[in-house]
Each structure stands twice: as structure tokens, then as C-alpha cells.
Design brief:
By secondary structure, the protein is an alpha+beta fold. The chain has 2 domains: 4-125, MutM-like, N-terminal (N-terminal domain of MutM-like DNA repair proteins, Alpha-Beta Barrel), CATH 3.20.190; 137-261, Helicase, Ruva Protein, domain 3 (Orthogonal Bundle), CATH 1.10.8. It has helices spanning 4-18, 33-39, 116-125, 137-144, 151-154, 166-175, 189-209, 217-220, and strands spanning 22-26, 42-50, 53-58, 63-67, 73-78, 92-97, 101-106, 110-114, 250-254, 257-261. Strands 5-7-6-1-2-3-4-8 form an 8-stranded antiparallel beta sheet. The chain has a two-stranded antiparallel sheet with strand order 9-10. Helix 1 crosses helix 7 and helix 6 packs across helix 7. It is globular, with a radius of gyration of 20 Å.
Length: 272
């Protein structure tokens, strides 16, 4: 599932490419045919994100709500003057098109037309977004300070905090030397403040880099490379050994996802 920074990048890119224009909206797969018909040839006002939710606001107060889930993908193609778009690839739920570009959406768990009241209902279910400059960190603290649930589960609960996916969960907990099974109520306010600050730092770096990064800023300009030629961006996530100490990575099943940790550097508190 895309991390929160990726969704914000999609929102910014789609806003730049399509806002202010009347769009051709269709559903080659037909599953979104009724919704596409309502918005075809309507003007898109803006695109924005909250956590892992995307909102495309059109005139007449209609909004397309998209959640990619685990398998949803976008495909954006810029068109040259007079160029026709390629035929849809696979089961394209929604196609947005102008004379300059085409955007295909495949495999989302949500693609629906809603109104502003529906948007508010969605927002009311979500916690603060890490990438929102006005996010209320204290609200997140209040939501976890008395919880017996592991912090590794709480960070993935979008009703508590938005935008932290599995990669960021693993890396944040490692960077803060917190064991994923540490109960939320065991965290001190100082530990939480450090965790929140680091979450903001990492997701903003993800926006700048265009992909999730968890190495120090000094390593970003010239990061170590893996054997396949890709940057070594993580400390524990999907690694065999800890980048810091070399210990063998432990994998837990937590919140329905595989959580990677260093058993040497992330110890459970003696009293939990």
C-alpha cells in the first residue's frame, strides 16, 4: 500500500496537470461508469489528500474519492500535440483525459463520486495527517497515551494518525529505538514528541525524494547502493540484517502486516 507521502505527491501532480480544466472522465472497465458520466466534461477545481485518501473536487460540488488500497495504481502519460492516448491497459477503473495528458487508475479499493457531506464523514474518521502543517500532534498523543495496544499497531491506525504505512512504521520505531510491541501507554511524552518530529521529517523527505527514505540526510545525497544498483534506503524494513548493528532482522505479524525490527537495538521495556 502506498505510504502517505506518495498520496500527497499524486495529489500535487494531478492538481498541476488537470485543475482548472474540463476533463473527459470515463470508465473503460465500466465499474465506475455511472460516476464517470456524472463528471464527464466537468471542470476540476483542485486535488488534495488526507492520509491515504485522494479527493478530486469538481464544479457543482461533486468529488471523486479514491483510495488505492494495496493494489491500486495510477498511470500518467503526457500527450504530444495531436497524439491519441494508448488503449487502456488492464482493468482501468477510471480514465481522466485532456488534450495534453491521460491518467488511468487501476485496482483501487475505492473510486466513487461523493459530496462535501460525505467528505466530512471521511475526515471525521481520520486522525491528523503527518504531512499537514496544521496537524494536531497533541490529539495523536491523547489517542495513544492510555492505550494498551502496541505502538506498532497504533501507528497504522488511520483513525489515530494518517499517512504512516508499514515501511515508515518499521523505520520510525527503529530510529526511535522502540520495540513495536511496546504498549502506547508505556511511551513518555518525550518519546512521543521525538517520534512525531521524526515522522514529519521522514515523510517530508519522502516528498522531496519521491520515495520513502529512512537514512540520515547526510546519506541521502550519496546513499549506499544495493547489489541490484538501487539505493539502500532503509535500516530494517525488508532487510536481512540491521543496517546499524548487523543483527539479524526479526519479523512480527502486527496489525495484519509484517513488521521488521532489530532485536538488539529495539528492546521491550522491562515493565509493560
Amino acid at each position: 500500500m502506498p505510504e502517505g507521502h506518495t498520496i500527497h505527491l499524486f495529489a500535487r501532480a494531478h492538481d498541476r496537470a488537470f485543475s482548472g480544466q474540463k476533463l473527459s472522465v470515463s470508465s473503460p472497465q465500466r465499474r465506475f461508469a455511472a460516476g464517470a458520466k456524472k463528471l464527464n466534461h466537468r471542470r476540476l477545481k483542485k486535488v488534495w489528500a488526507r492520509g491515504k485518501h485522494l479527493f478530486y473536487e469538481f464544479d457543482r460540488k461533486r468529488i471523486i474519492h479514491v483510495h488505492l488500497g494495496l493494489h491500486g495504481k495510477f498511470r500518467f502519460v503526457a500527450l504530444k500535440r495531436g497524439q491519441s492516448p494508448e488503449p487502456p491497459r488492464g482493468a482501468v477503473r477510471m480514465r481522466i483525459r485532456t488534450s495534453d495528458a491521460v491518467l488511468d487508475l487501476n485496482g483501487p479499493i475505492v473510486c466513487e463520486v461523493i459530496d462535501h457531506a460525505d467528505v466530512q464523514k471521511i475526515l471525521d474518521r481520520l486522525g491528523p495527517d503527518v504531512l499537514d502543517s496544521n496537524a494536531d500532534a497533541n490529539a495523536v498523543w491523547l489517542a495513544i497515551e492510555n492505550r494498551a495496544k502496541p505502538i506498532g499497531e497504533l501507528l497504522m491506525d488511520q483513525s489515530i494518525v494518517c499517512g504512516i504505512g508499514n515501511a515508515y512504521r518499521c523505520e520510525l520505531l527503529y530510529r526511535q529505538r522502540l520495540h513495536p510491541l511496546t504498549p502506547g501507554k508505556s511511551l513518555t511524552r518525550k518519546q512521543f514528541d521525538s517520534l512525531w518530529k521524526d515522522a514529519v521529517h521522514l515523510l517530508k523527505m519522502g516528498v522531496r525524494r519521491g520515495q520513502a527514505w529512512a537514512v540520515d540526510e547526510t546519506d541521502v545525497k550519496n546513499p549506499p547502493m544495493l547489489s541490484d544498483g538501487t539505493p539502500d534506503r532503509y535500516n530494517v524494513y525488508r532487510r536481512t540484517n540491521c543496517r546499524g548493528c548487523g543483527a539479524k532482522i526479526q519479523v512480527l505479524r502486527l496489525g495484519g502486516r509484517r513488521c521488521h525490527l532489530c532485536p538488539k537495538e529495539q528492546k521491550l521495556p522491562n515493565r509493560i
